[in-house]
Amino acid sequence: MKVNLINVEDKSVVIEYLNKERLVTFNDNGDIDIEPFNDLSEEEGQELFDRIITSDVINAALPFED
User: Fold this and answer.
1) Is residue 15 part of a domain?
2) 14 phi/psi in degrees, rounded to 5
3) pLDDT computed for residue 24 by the predictor
4) Separation of alpha carbons 26 and 47, rounded Å
5) Which of 9, 39, 46, 55 is buried deepest, with most CB atoms within 10 A?
6) Structural element, H or E, at residue 56
7) Is residue 66 part of a domain?
8) How many structural domains comprise the chain?
9) Within a domain: 13
10) Given 3-state DSSP classes, what are the helix, strand and coil percentages for the chain, each rounded to the nearest 5?
């Protein structure tokens, strides 16, 4: 996963994963939306989600709240 752009104001991140650019958005209730997502297998989707929530770069810009 490569982080291409972080927009703190919009709480969004553009990443590259499996040779495709994906938009990741975070909402106030803690949900994470990834588009496109339907091209990923269940394992790939879980791996991507895990990488997003453990990314030092993303967490520094958009810290997750417990």
Assistant:
1) yes
2) -105, 125
3) 97
4) 17
5) 55
6) helix 56-61
7) no
8) 1
9) yes
10) 30, 35, 35
